[in-house]
Amino acid sequence: KELEVGIDKIGLYVPKYYIDMKELATYRGVDPNKWTIGIGQEQMAVPTLASDVVALAANAANQIITEEDKGLIDQVIVGTESGVDHSKSIATFVHGLLEINPFAKAFEIKQACYGATAALQLACDYVRLRPERKVLVIATDISRYGLDTSGEPTQGAGAIAMLVSANPKILTIRQESFMHTNHQFDFWRPNDSEYAMVDGHFSTKLYQDEFVKVLEHVEAMNPSLLERIEAMTFHLPFTKMGLKALNAYEEAKGSHPIIDKWRSHYDASRVLNRRVGNIYTGSLFLSLISLLAKDDTLSAGETIGLFSYGSGAVSELLIGQLQPDYRQYVNSEEIEQHLDRRDALTVEQYETIFLEKQLVNDGQSAPLTADEVGFYFAGITDYKRQYHYQA
Ligand code: CAA
Question: Is 194 in the active site?
Answer without folding.
Answer: no
